[in-house]
Amino acid sequence: MTDPDGRPHRSILRGIAHRAMLEKGLVPDFPLQALAELDGIHGPATQTEGSTRDLRNLLWCSIDNDDSRDLDQLTVAEAMPDGVTKVLVAIADVDVVVKKQSALDDHARQNTTSVYTAAETFPMLPEKLSTDLTSLNYESDRLAIVIEMVLGGDGSLQSSDLYPATVHNRAKLAYNTVAGWLEGNAPMPPGIGTVTGLDGNLRLQDRVAQKLKALRHLHGALDLETIEARPVFDGDELKDLAAETRNRAKDIIEDFMIAANGVAARYLASKKFPSLRRVVRTPKRWDRIVELAAGRGSTLPKEPDAKALEQFLVSAKAADPLRFPDLSLSVIKLLGAGEYVVELPGGSVAGHFGLAVKDYAHSTAPNRRYPDLITQRLLKAAVAGRSRPYENDELEALAKHCTEAEDAAKKVERQVTKSAAAILLESRIGEQFDAIVTGASDKGTWVRLLHPPIEGRLGSGFEGVDVGDRLRVQLVRTDVERGYIDFKRVV
N or C: which terminus of the chain carries fewer CB neighbours within 10 A? Predict the structure, then answer.
């Protein structure tokens, strides 16, 4: 199926994505200066300043999405006496190739992130780098920054270290197949069985990650579980938007990265260096979260309380696991967006409410997130005993810019997803669906269908509804180019 003009869906969505990038102040194509600089890079970096540990013999592996090619991190674990485990996270050394104030860095700084749309990815760095020369690719030697964590039997951090190393990826694995195996629902992925000892190492990583998660939740981390829609193409034709949910393999990476980001932040503080933190401050609509809980028979305190909210979420998930992602989505919308802030030596900024962590510096994805590349440069300077690569006022300006550009990137991604959704729904005008309210403000009221997981505007019948309410809606209009999907409430 194509549109009436005969254009394939992917072509339509690519055009929409390019326009959306430009409208939001992002640059869809690499400038000529950056491409010329890229032509002068002929291979991965093999040497960096100072001493580098050789850790290529360890059972490093990557776990990511099925189609991921920009591999930013590897993980490995080692059992130690008395139930203690050493966890190592290797982060791709991107800075060794992409130097500050180079043409490649200038472009990365402008967009600040890779933008993943339904039709096309706009990488922060050219694919020659992000999916090859600075990616921790399978069977390749690469320079990395290693974050080492020694964890007690309960998941508590006993000690940590951070240093440059050379690593070697033994297995490129995917979330869904690893999760199926760990959960006992699928056979062992071939990539695991061919590496002696990797199966046991991954099971150890899984056990440690579950302990890290349990400890964070004990401190009030929120057990949120949203459904993300990923486009399903057959060639260039869009066939569906499939729901993506959390699983055990994603938990390994998520919990290790949260722990590693905490180590990075505290390492910089210990060296009297500033850091770029990601925070979610006090929830912007706690009063509505309290109302949602009351509607489910639970009482939350009048003032924001992460532990109380987590206890409510746990009970709500146990009571109705199928609808829990809808509740999670409502809570996320009501918590508000995160932002980047600078913590100066000796200073104190807000922690990350949703993760229940005080110290959180994005550091684990320097191929696709500019704040992580900034953090990497700070870390490398701190390790080497060099002066700071950024002045405080420069970091303050970058924090503000990264927040704004990342918000713009998310808007582009949502806009293209909405256009993809409009393509799927344009033949279903007049049909009715079950939906949940995901946004309610002066700007409009928004609902998301339970299936397929598509969001649109509620054009009529929105009086008196709020985030988290369930409705029956009818599809009245779609506009693919603008990504508009309009519903009306069915009484």
Answer: C
